[in-house]
C-alpha cells in the first residue's frame, strides 16, 4: 500500500483496509500501554519504596538519589535498544521488533517483583535491580519507534497525526494503570505491608499483561511502507551508519524536541512528585494513596490532550501544534509547584493536571512528526535513535536533578526554572525544523524525504 494507493481526503477506504487499520491502532495502544505500564511501575516504586528496600545503608537522602539514579541509568541503554531495533526494524520489519521488545520488558518487570531486598541478600539486591532496569531500558529504546511507524505508515495521509497518537496515548494509559495499581495496593496493603509485599503485586501483574499484548501484536500486519521497501529491494545494509552520515544534525535536533517534553513529563512519570509530596520526612508529607490517586487522575488529562494534539496536528500542521504545546507546557511548569507546595491534595491534582495538558500537546503529534522527518529506508533507525537520545537528554535524570536542586537550594523554584529551560530548548529545536506534514512516506519518494528539514541544510 503506497502513498498513491491511500484514499484521498474525504473518500472511504475499503472495508478490509479499515479493519486492518483499526487492528493496528488497537495493537499499538495495547502494546505501548503494556510496555509503559512496566516502565512506570518501576519509576513509581523508585519514588516510593526502593530507597528503603535496596539502598537503605546509604542513608535517607543519598538512598533517594540512588533510587532515582536507577531510573535514569536505564535511559543510558535506550540508545542500544534503539540501535538494535532500528537496524533490525529497517532490515527485517517493524512487527518482529515490537513483539521482541514487549516480551523483554515483561520478563524484566516480572523479575523485579520477585527480587529479594538488601536486607535478604545484601549488595546483590541493588545490583540485580539495576541489571533488570537496564533490560527495561533496552526494551523501551526499541519499542516506541516500531509502534509509531506501524501506526503512521498504515494511516491515510490526512490522518497521520490522529493514527500516530495511538502509541502516544499508550503512555498516559500506562501511567494511569501504573498509578492506579499502586494506589490500589497502597490501600489494600497500607504501611509496612506495602513495603513488605504490596509493591510487588503490580510488577507480577505484568506477566498477565504481556500475554495479552503479545497476542494482540502477533495479529497485526507488517507496515505497508516496509513491505514496499522490501519489494523494491532498497533496504539499506547498515541503516544506522547511513543515518548518521547523512542526517546527524537532524537526529540531534529531533532529540532536543523530545527532551523538552520528556524532562517535564518525568516529574510524574519518573516518580519525583510522588516522592516529594508523600515523603514522611519531607515538607508536605501527604498520604501516599492520595498522591497516587491524584497522579492517576492527571493521566486522564494527559491522555485526552495527547489524542487531541494528534488530531489538531492534522489540521494545523505538526510544527504549529508543537509551538502551541510548548506555550501550554511552559504555563504548566510555572503553575506546578505553587499549587503542589500548598500541601492540599486538590491543588496538587490541579497542578499536575494543568501540566499534563501541555505535555499532551508536545507529545501527541510526535509519531507523525518524527516519521515525516526521515527517509523510508532508514526511518526506523532515525525515529528510534532520536527518541532514545531525547530521553537521555530529557527525562533520564530529571528526577535526580530535581531532587539535587531542592536539596541544594531548598526551594522548588529552582526545579521550575530547570523545567522551563528544557521547555524553551524544545521550542527552539522545533523552530529549527521545517514542517513536513503530509510528505509522502513510501520508498518511491526517498529523494524528496532525504532533503534535510533542518533550516540552512539541504543536502541529500
From TrEMBL:
It comes from the Bacteria. Its main location: membrane. It is a multi-pass membrane protein. CDD domains: MFS_ShiA_like. It is found in: Cell membrane. Residues 24-438 form the Major facilitator superfamily (MFS) profile domain. It holds the Pfam family MFS_1. Keywords: Cell membrane, Membrane, Transmembrane, Transmembrane helix, Transport. PROSITE patterns: MFS, SUGAR_TRANSPORT_1. The chain crosses the membrane at residues 62-84, 96-121, 127-152, 173-191, 197-216, 250-269, 289-309, 321-339, 345-364, 385-406, 412-433. This is MHS family MFS transporter. The lineage of its organism: Bacteria, Bacillati, Actinomycetota, Actinomycetes, Micrococcales.
